[in-house]
Each structure stands twice: as structure tokens, then as C-alpha cells.
Amino acid sequence: MRTNRVLLAAAASVAALTLAGCGGGDGGPKVPTAGGGTARASGTASTQSGGDDDMAAYVEAQRAYVTCLRDNGIDAPDPDARGNVVFGDDDLLALKKDAKFRAATGKCAEHQIAVPESVENGNQPSLSAEQIKVKRAYATCMQDNGAADFPDPGPDGLGQGEWDQSSASAKRAIRICGPIVGVPAGSGPGKG
Known about the structure:
- With 192 residues, this protein is mainly α.
- It is 45% helix and 0% strand.
- It contains seven helices and no strands.
- It is elongated.
């Protein structure tokens, strides 16, 4: 389950970086939203160390990326307050296959930066007290069963750090502790 979440987070980050960007425009304070209205920046990421600076740098980089995409013929929307760029309801797979889009993203890659952890955490929904309790129980189980370097979640239940997932003891801990987070015991890859 942990590996799936890490892969999902990585895929989301790649998708955000590939499709995200902040655009030029009239320089006004409005930020487009999927609902067609405007939104104000959320202070979620600013509660973490460096959140405001990280957010500002990320949004600025996304604006440069979208400007570059536009300069290369792509109708890219402005980013939201967190630097996310939503290309609409179009088929993203088709967009990624489009030669013009691929050429533009290749030319504009220099403007992309990694999503800062404070921004990524700010984009995650808040966890309930019960969900935080489950995350803490999972971390304790992992640490007690061979993954001593498994990070404790922060007060908000987020803030997972890096740990060695490749060791035999870590894999054993994942199997033992999986049921805590809803992974059936003994589940593994299917036979094909």
C-alpha cells in the first residue's frame, strides 16, 4: 500500500509538472478555477516551514512554463493558486500524444521545477483524527517490524520522508502492517 501511495504521488507530481504551468496574461489577481470562477490563494502550505517561499517560487516557475508553452503554440491555462494547471476535460492521454504538445513541453522543460514538499502536502486533503491515528499506528508497526527508518507522520498525518523500502525487513514489515491501512494480508502480485 505504501509503495502504491508513493507511486501515485510520483505519478501525480510528474503529471502536474508535465501539464502544469503558470501563464502570463493580464497580470490581474484572478486565478482561474475548474468551476469557471476565481479563487484566492489558500494558506495551507504556508503553515509549514518555508511554505510561502516554496509556493511563490513554484507558482512563478509554473507561470514561466505556461508562458513558454504559449510561445510554442499551446493554449495553456493559467495556474491556480497552488501552481496547478488544469487543461480541462480534454483527454490528457491524447494531449500527451500530440506532437505539437510534446515538442512544446520539450522546449519548455527548463522552466519546470520539482513540486516542493510543502506545496505537495498543501495539495493533499486534510486527514481526519481517525486517519491520522491509523497513519501513526502504521508507522509504529513498520518501525517495530523491521523498517526502523520508516518516518513518523507529522501532526497533520502527512510529512512522510524517505526510507529504505528495498530491504527484506522492510518488505516483511509492509506485509505484516498492510492490513492496518487496508491492504489484505498476504496480498501480492497476481499470476499472469
